[in-house]
Amino acid sequence: MFVISTLRGEWMDPDDVMIDALADKILGGKVGGALHLPFRWKQKNAPRRLYAPIHIEASTPVRTHLSCRLDLRFRIGLDKPWDYSLMLLHPGSGTILRRLDVRGTHLDRETGEQFINRTHKHKWSEQRGNKDVYAPNDIRHSPDPIADATLTSMDEEYDRVVRDFVQECRMDIATGYVWVPPTPPVVAPTLEGFEEYP
Questions:
Q1: CA distance 114 to 106
Q2: Using alpha carbons only, what angle is made at residue 110 by residues 95 and 85, rounded to the nearest 5 degrees?
Q3: pLDDT at 53
Q4: 8-state DSSP, 194
Q5: Structure confidence by residue, pLDDT tens digits, 143-156
Q6: Quick check: helix, strand or coil at residue 34?
Q7: H helices of the chain, where?
Q8: Strand 11-12 relative to strand 34-35: parallel, antiparallel, unpaired?
Q9: What SS3 state is found at 85?
Q10: What does the DSSP 8-state code read for residue 14?
Q11: Which is it for the CA torsion 16, 18, 22, 28, positive or negative?
Q12: What's the half-sphere exposure (Cβ side, CA atoms, 13 Å) at 87?
């Protein structure tokens, strides 16, 4: 059975509404979730400044036995390649079921706890959204920021952390999936002699 989304005016599956029961199915390993395609990288530029890439990101679909679609997204800040995030996303509802921030900075507004350059995870629930934050012990990485990090020097860690995150989400890596290193950004040329206006 399909319903029409009043927000987008398109056909949607009932699974496009995230509830705890569906999240439990997905993250309980009952849906056979698996990565089966490589990441596809693209750069994101600063608004109105096409020559200033601020991060690169990639996504790949997660195959499941449910009718709903899942994506795994990877975002890396270019100013700090050691600070990056992985997100298990349910695009139908826009829900991020799990998010891993590696060496990220986060303030828990409810408890006042600060995660400054600390690896932490966000777990989604109907009642609390993504407010449940905790420090993981299953991510194989050096906990401290890396001063001279580059996309190339971090490549092995990125691949390893993807695998750790997928395992924590109770998913598998299928034979079609291969790690594709992040693509360095292409900076658009600026025109000399012209001032920049916001």
A1: 6
A2: 40
A3: 62
A4: -
A5: 888 889 999 999 99
A6: strand
A7: 20-27, 155-168
A8: unpaired
A9: strand
A10: G
A11: positive
A12: 17
Amino acid (1-letter code) at residue 128: R
Let me know: does 180 contact 38? Beta carbons within 8 Å: yes
What do you get for the CA distance between the two ends of the chain, in Å?
48
Instruction: Please report, for residues 45, 50, 151, the alpha-carbon distance to residue 186 in angstroms, rounded to integers and kept in the order given.
Output: 10, 10, 14
pLDDT in tens, 50-79: 556 688 999 999 988 877 788 999 999 888
- What would the two tokens of residue 12 be? 């949607």
Looking at residue 44, its amino acid is K
Q: For residue 133, name the pLDDT band (cuts at 50, 70, 90).
A: confident
What's residue 185's pLDDT? 76
Query: Cα(37)–Cα(175) distance, rounded to whole angstroms?
Result: 9
